[in-house]
Design goal:
275 residues, four-stranded parallel sheet, alpha/beta, 2 domains, Rossmann fold, 13 helices
């Protein structure tokens, strides 16, 4: 690298060198450091090194950083992040204290995904995400991300954490959730603050006999069609549901349904979320 002319090295390395030089030259005088998207053109490992150097060089100074990187946010301090959407703004400290602590500890930290998409669909797991993608492809002949719609897997207990942010910023969010056999307890009571919200939609099935995604799919599709997709020969829908809901089979079944060229019937509550 030492023998390569500056203008021939990678853009990421050029940006890193320029930033380091700027930090060196302003080390003694500047009290406020403005940095725009330090992650540009950098691999993950080099971005980590650069952020560490920013932290060291800017100790005791105010840093104003614009970024599209969850990693940069995590490393430089989530408590000072300003979230902005359509003229609305907030910091994590505007949230309830337990929600604030949750996002401080959350390794993945998908708040940026929530902000940067035109619309968000929150789902409970990878299998739900695949079925939502399949539903969107069948309806619109493209993936939701092509329309600026991000499908984010969030464990069910954490939905309301993300909805607090969506509520403050008036972000359009749809939640696809299981009724787990009790609509009143798991939907009506749990999401009472959001059931009539202007920008938040809670999408679920009223059929308490079909508690989760897999029995919902089996209920609306023909047994033979699903058998063909999954390469199985179950004689009853009850047997098929038992197979599909086994934890070791859930993701494989969802992947097969996603990959198939056969059109399946999508449960109505999922269609409601993608409209």
């Amino acid at each position: 690298m030492d023998n390569i002319p500056f203008d021939l090295i990678g853009k990421g390395e050029q940006n890193s060198i320029k930033l380091k030089l700027s930090l060196e030259s302003s080390e003694d005088d500047a009290q406020i450091i403005l940095i725009e998207e330090p992650e540009n053109h950098l691999s993950f490992s080099n971005m980590a090194k650069l952020v560490d150097q920013i932290t060291q060089k800017c100790a005791g100074k105010q840093i104003v950083v614009t970024t599209h990187s969850n990693f940069v946010l995590n490393k430089l301090g989530l408590d000072k992040v300003i979230l902005i959407h359509n003229g609305n703004h907030m910091t994590l400290k505007d949230l309830k204290e337990d929600t604030y602590k949750y996002f401080k500890k959350l390794p993945g930290y998908d708040t940026l995904r929530l902000l940067l998409s035109d619309k968000v669909i929150l789902v409970e797991g990878p299998s739900d995400e695949l079925i939502v993608q399949k539903a969107y492809i069948q309806k619109y002949n493209k993936l939701p991300i092509e329309d600026g719609i991000d499908v984010i897997t969030v464990r069910g207990l954490s939905f309301k954490r993300f909805l607090e942010i969506a509520d403050i910023l008036q972000k359009h969010v749809a939640v696809i959730t299981d009724n787990d056999g009790n609509v009143e307890q798991n939907i009506t009571n749990k999401y009472s603050d959001y059931l009539n919200h202007q920008t938040i939609k809670i999408c679920y099935s009223d059929d308490e006999s079909s508690k989760t995604l897999e029995p919902q799919l089996v209920a609306v599709n023909e047994l033979q069609i699903l058998n063909n997709i999954l390469e199985k020969e179950f004689s009853t829908k009850e047997e098929l549901v038992k197979y599909m809901t086994t934890s070791s089979n859930k993701n494989d079944c969802a992947m097969r349904i996603f990959d198939t060229q056969v059109e399946i019937i999508i449960p109505e509550y999922i269609n409601e979320a993608i409209e």
